[in-house]
Amino acid sequence: MRLFDLSPVRKVPIRGFFLWSNFLNLKLNSSLSIVKKIWWFVFALLSIMIGVYPLVYIFMEDRDIGFLGTKSLVLLNSFAWNLGFYIHIVFSGIALLIGWIQFSAKIRNQYIKVHRTIGRFYVMCGLLGASAGFYLGFYATGTWLTKTGFVLLGICWFSSTFAAYFHILRKEVFRHQKMMIYSYAFCWAAVTLRIYLPFLNMIFQEFIVAYTIVAWLCWVPNLAVAWWINRRLKGRSVSFS
User: Fold this and answer.
1) With CB atoms counted within 10 Å of each terminal CB, which end of the chain scores lower, N or C?
2) DSSP character for 10?
């Protein structure tokens, strides 16, 4: 009886293994590419839809519906409040409407002048929209907790937008990019608010409770997502397209 088998060892079909591995990788990459395109489409679609939503308030005749239906006649007749309201919805809407384009690698790399033009316009609209939002936050429907949530949102959006502009003036592209991600995450609170609020209303059956929760829920998770994206970048350019 032989203690050791000295016969030639059969070769494992390594080539077949690698071919199969490459095939699985291609399938996985293809699936991820499809998911990315779907996400980009949804991201752009929601940004556009909510971006044009303020037109409802501009052209509506009855002011006793929707968001305005929760406000007192004193506020609705206040020139200062109305000025702040229309500045906020118009310029925030424009910022939301155009901001998503900045995440397109194709536009950023091939049409840098378009990217810069849209960027300047976004910064202007963002600063105006955030300033007006900060003012409106003090008159938000609900408790002091509701008002605090929206006031802090205005501060965060203004600060991140201003910081992004400051960094690009100093040619600090990566820092500019990180702050723009934060800025648009705060801008996107307009979208997440309209997603969460109907569900919160159904759950709690009380608008004040739902609105108090959404005053924080519409932007704090967005901030967390922006932080996660920035942490993963590590010097690379962001692209959702």
Assistant:
1) N
2) P
Q: How buried is 118 (Cβ within 10 angstroms: 0-12 exposed, 13-18 middle, 19+ buried)?
A: middle
Residue 120 lies in a domain: yes
**Cα 241 to Cα 10, 35, 102, 104, distances in angstroms:** 48, 11, 10, 5
What is the pTM assigned to this prediction? Answer: 0.82
Classify residue 235 as left (phi > 0), alpha (psi -120 to 50) or beta: left
Query: Does residue 95 form part of some domain?
Result: yes
Domain presence at residue 200: yes
List, for residues 98-149, the tens digit of each pLDDT value: 999 998 888 888 888 999 999 999 999 999 999 999 999 999 999 999 999 9
**CB neighbourhood size of 31 (10 A):** 10
Buried b / exposed e along 185-224 (16+ C-beta atoms within 10 A)? bbbbbbbbbeebbeebeeeeeeeebbbbbbbbbbbeebbe
- Residue 2 in domain: no
Q: Of 14, 8, 189, 21, which Cα lies nearest the Cα of 92?
A: 189
Which residues does 189 contact at the CB level (< 8 Å), separation at least 6?
A: 153, 157, 218, 219, 222
